[in-house]
UniProtKB/TrEMBL annotation:
The keyword Chloroplast does not apply. Keywords: Membrane, Transferase, Transmembrane, Transmembrane helix. It is a multi-pass membrane protein. It comes from Candidatus Uhrbacteria bacterium GW2011_GWF2_39_13. The lineage of its organism: Bacteria, Candidatus Uhriibacteriota. Pfam families: Bac_transf, CoA_binding_3. It is found in: Membrane. Residues 268-464 form the Bacterial sugar transferase domain. NCBIfam families: EPS_sugtrans. This is Undecaprenyl-phosphate glucose phosphotransferase. The chain crosses the membrane at residues 7-30, 50-74, 86-106, 112-132, 270-294.
Amino acid sequence: MKRSELFFTLVLVPLDYLALTAATIAAFFARFHPIFTDIRPITFDLDLQNYLKVVTPIIVLFILVFTTTGLYKIIRYSVAKEFSRIILACSASMALVFAISFFSRVLFESRFIAIAAWVFAIFFVCLERLLLRALQRSLLRFGIGMHRVVLVGQTSTSDALMEEFKAHKRLGFQIIGHHKTFTKALAKELRNLKRQDLIDEIILADPESTRQQTLELIAFTEQEHLGFRYSADLFTAAIGRSIIHTYAGVPVIEVQKTPLDGWGAIYKRLFDITASSILIVLTSPIILAAAIAIKLDSRGPILFSKLDDGSSCQRIGQEGKPFQYFKLRSMRPGTHSLRYSELAGQDTRKGTPLVKIKDDPRVTRVGNFIRKFSIDELPELFLVFSGKMSLVGPRPHLPEEVDNYKPEQRKVMTIKPGITGMAQISGRANLNFDDEVRLDTYYIEHWSPWLDFYILLKTPLVVLFPKGTY
């Protein structure tokens, strides 16, 4: 753990105290503003000095609740997760205040000030933490707080991590070395770097590394007091949600099912219906304009819903069940099957279940444009509304592709396929299939409304600045 990270974690307590104090003062003065006094005159006698005497222990109560909800952990959360915890902590704290007020009758009687203080508390604490994050990221430009790491493993995973860390300094990782495997010679070199204080962590970026190599590397990092991270394989991603029980002194791990079972599935379906209805209305003009352009550009149907032999186009959905699929046509009619014959030599994903043709000659001029901005997939919103797909989830694959899945890869069919998902916002066509499955497996095991919200917010950025699309 970097000293700067410890410092920023430590200052959270006094800064939260100041933000909460500012929130309570803002609520006090808001109640005495003419806008509100004209609507509801003040019927109580309370000056600022006595008010602060009352709210000071309340602020301490807020800080204690913040502590119990994990807002002062050294490990920082994502912005969305931290904000959700702040809202939860402020709401729980205010509920305690109301409970104390009800039973003791010693607090002031202005409900407006209490509610305004709750709203201001959420706003001020979120703003304070956002500014602190901005300061932390600014310091990273000067190398302050940067994690100096060595990558072990020369795989597509390590290449992707190197590209990501170099392109996004705000992540706080500086690659100072990249090695294929962990050997005794490398251990000696890393030990020297540690003695010179030039290394902080080691990242094992080989999901297929042997158990022995991984254990040796973990033991080395513990001996040298170095941080250790590793890229997850399919098994690790699949058991992300687990509980450890102890029976007869033996630890037994219970692998929990996806949170999308039960109420999670109900919430997701209600959200899909509501959001898809709104998006269908908003995107209808775009779909209509694209349909006209397709008709003017080339002969053939507007929708791609049938294969070359006249049979219906299908995709594999939840639990491996096929469903009727359609989207805006982007290719010349009757050329779909060429991907398995004349164009097979241009497949950029040979050796995987998927087929991807780069610089696809079958694509029309309009088709190239609507593919670039994913306009061809907008009709999938109707499939979301009907319940065949979801807004967020693994991509829907062809039956012949699914036939080539390995058993562990079929986990992605646990839930409904989505218009967008973890893989789509993390590289799209540039991802290899194993990485795509790992991301989708992580999503299935760690689903939350906030994760869906994050993916949906990031999707337009990926569409407007395409990476990995053909």
